[in-house]
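Why should sequence recovery work at all? Because a backbone constrains its sequence more than one might expect. Tight turns favour small or flexible residues, buried strands favour hydrophobic ones, and helices have their own preferences. The token representation captures these environments compactly. In the example below, the structure is given first.
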């Protein structure tokens, strides 16, 4: 098929593009040309040969829609649809594609799970601006599909890593914790790091997404996409620590205490990672057998860390004393709070 990928050169995007080529599609990407994978330390990760490039900003709606309508694509994959306005623009840009694939997010399911495992059909409870925007876009596409106007497939990735400019942790999105491990400093975790977190390499996710393109059985379906293996936060942190070459030293503290004492460092904990994140992957297993995630975090981590170091993106832990301060005051803070309730 002639497939256009809106985006195409970033984290998950590049995985999708590489896999689409492997599946024999003709691939065009549409992006601004500001992401330079070679410049970002991914020396071997330029856009593969054979990919056609269209330059433009999807926020320049008129130009984006005119460019897309001037082409003849059989399928479109939008990697970077973030709100209802983006989705409505896609409807105008791709009025006649045989297959449209949108990349949503498990963030639309919200924080505390309504049920476990969380499924694509679980209640949507978006809790922040990002999730609200993604959920609103999903609604626009679902309505068009229900009207018979859009042959739609939706993917909801959980955390998908590989080429991102940071490596998150249970508490939040900053990469300083990697320098703490390097220096032998302890890192804070909640629930003793025993909660389940689901994550996946961008190239593995790319195969799953690309394999759906043009598959009639995938039309009308929504798939959560992440690794099949269940892993705890302890596993996650230890896999990164193994790449750093130092053991991770954990200090456990109640989630409420951490969120109250360190709001700027606990964004992910407050939003998602204070609960088990277990997903129903039976739909993707059923319909997309090509999706067989195989890249372990420990395997990819050395390259991810090398790349962040090369770009100076792992802050020096000594410049941020907040975590040491909280660890030092845990005894006092802990007495002010009841013990942590068990999580389902
Ligand atoms: N990564 C995760 O953990 C995760 C989890 C859940 C859901 N998701 C969803 O997965 C999707 C992909 O996320 P990702 O972080 O991996 O991103 P990505 O696929 O790396 O997307 C970035 C791509 O979009 C292009 N781009 C960005 N802004 C653009 C614009 N205004 N106009 C045209 N092209 C533009 C970039 O190239 P230029 O900069 O050159 O334009 C690049 O090719 C997103 O929808 C995200 O919400 C990701």
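From this structural description, the recovered sequence reads:
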């Amino acid at each position: 098929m002639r497939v256009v990928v809106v985006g195409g050169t970033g984290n998950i995007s590049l995985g999708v593009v590489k896999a689409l080529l492997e599946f024999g599609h003709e691939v065009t990407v549409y992006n601004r040309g500001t992401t330079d994978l070679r410049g970002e330390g991914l020396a071997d990760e330029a856009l593969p040969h054979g990919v056609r490039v269209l330059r433009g900003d999807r926020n320049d709606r008129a130009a984006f829609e005119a460019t897309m309508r001037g082409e003849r694509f059989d399928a479109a994959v939008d990697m970077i649809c973030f709100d209802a306005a983006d989705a409505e623009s896609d409807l105008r840009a791709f009025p006649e594609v045989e297959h449209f694939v949108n990349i949503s997010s498990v963030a639309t399911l919200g924080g505390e799970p309504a049920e476990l495992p969380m499924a694509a059909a679980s209640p949507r409870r978006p809790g922040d601006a990002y999730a609200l925007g993604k959920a609103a876009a999903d609604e626009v596409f679902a309505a068009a599909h229900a009207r018979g106007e859009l042959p739609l497939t939706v993917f909801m990735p959980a955390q998908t890593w590989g080429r991102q400019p940071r490596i998150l942790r249970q508490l939040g999105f900053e990469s300083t914790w990697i320098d703490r491990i390097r220096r032998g400093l302890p890192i804070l975790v909640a629930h003793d790091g025993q909660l389940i977190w689901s994550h996946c390499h961008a190239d593995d996710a790319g195969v799953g997404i690309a394999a759906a393109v043009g598959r009639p059985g995938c039309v009308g379906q929504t798939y959560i996409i992440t690794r099949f293996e269940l892993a705890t936060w302890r596993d996650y942190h230890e896999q990164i620590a193994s790449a750093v070459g130092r053991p991770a030293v954990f200090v456990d503290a109640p989630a409420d205490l951490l969120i109250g004492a360190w709001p700027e460092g606990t964004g992910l904990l407050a939003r998602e990672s204070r609960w088990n994140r277990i997903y129903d992957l039976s739909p993707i297993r059923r319909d997309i057998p090509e999706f067989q995630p195989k890249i372990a975090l420990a395997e990819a981590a050395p390259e991810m860390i090398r790349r962040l170091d090369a770009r100076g993106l792992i802050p020096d832990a000594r410049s941020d004393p907040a975590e040491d301060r909280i660890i030092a005051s845990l005894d006092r803070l802990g007495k002010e709070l009841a013990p942590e309730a068990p999580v389902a």
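A few observations help interpret the result. The radius of gyration is 21 Å.
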